[in-house]
Design a protein that fits this description.
Blueprint (H helix, E strand, L loop, with lengths): L1 H16 L4 H8 L5 H21 L3 E5 L10 E4 L6 H8 L5 E5 L8 H7 L3 E3 L4 H16 L4 E3 L20 H6 L3 E7 L16 E6 L5 H4 L4 H24 L1
Helix pairs in contact: 1-3, 3-4
Length: 245
């Protein structure tokens, strides 16, 4: 537990260290959006995420970055644990925002950076606010900002998948952007597996083939959700068979 507390303290100090970069980043965020500006705004969140992951002693392997399309995409990932977000920010290979819980908006410094990388805060208990948040996410995608969703809705805390909820797939449908499935494995072993104690793990991010608008335009959101879940499930099973072969 002492090690876990130490990692949390380290993470807090690294986040505090980004305060020096906030004023410049806020000015930059007010300029006309471009790929270059998005990359610059993403530098500090990416740096923090990598440092914290490294501090845990974990190793992150990424496969399939060559499949990433240019422009905005909706990333669809399974949600094993809390460290999924750091793994994606640090190693995915593309600036991304998230559909995040409303509570995170209360966190100082972190919430400021999340706003600048175009995260959307959602209160699932407030239907009207949820609709506004989804519409904001659609606007961000149309403006060229990629977003990650976790359609399971909550952490699985293991290697099994919960059913994908179709509602969030409206983001891609309305914005007319590619959907990129990402299979995450190993993050639950960093925290959730051992009663909240942080430990090292081998984490993999497997980027699968994009599902382009022309491939899903005649499908309902439930069908798209089922397709994405099937892709990620097979990807996770493929990784398991590779390890045990």
């Amino acid at each position: 537990m002492i090690r876990t507390i130490g990692i949390y303290i380290y993470a807090g100090l690294v986040v505090i260290g980004t305060l020096l970069h906030l004023p410049k980043a806020k000015k930059l965020s007010k300029q006309k959006s471009s790929a270059e500006i998005n990359e610059k705004l993403f530098e500090q969140p990416k740096m923090v995420s990598r440092k914290v992951m490294e501090r845990t002693g974990s190793t992150v392997y990424v496969k399939g970055q060559e499949k990433l399309p240019d422009g905005a995409v909706l990333f669809v990932a399974n949600h094993q644990g809390l460290f999924d977000i750091l793994a994606l920010i640090g190693y995915l290979g593309k600036p991304v925002g998230f559909i995040a819980k409303k509570e995170i908006e209360k966190l100082p410094i972190i919430s400021s950076w999340m706003e600048m990388i175009h995260c959307v805060f959602i209160d699932r208990k407030d239907r009207r606010q949820s609709v506004r948040a989804i519409n904001r996410g659609i606007d961000y995608l149309k403006q060229g900002h990629s977003i990650v969703i976790f359609p399971e809705g909550t952490r699985s805390r293991g290697s099994n998948l919960n059913d994908f909820k179709p509602g969030s797939f409206r983001l891609a449908i309305k914005a007319n952007v590619p959907i990129v499935p990402v299979a995450i494995d190993g993050t639950y072993q960093m925290l959730e597996e051992d009663e909240g104690r942080v430990k090292a793990s081998t984490v993999s991010l497997r980027i699968e083939d994009p599902i382009y608008p022309e491939d899903y335009q005649n499908k309902k959101s439930g069908e798209i959700a089922a397709q994405a879940q099937d892709i990620i499930q097979k990807s996770l099973q493929g990784k398991t068979s590779e390890q045990t072969a």
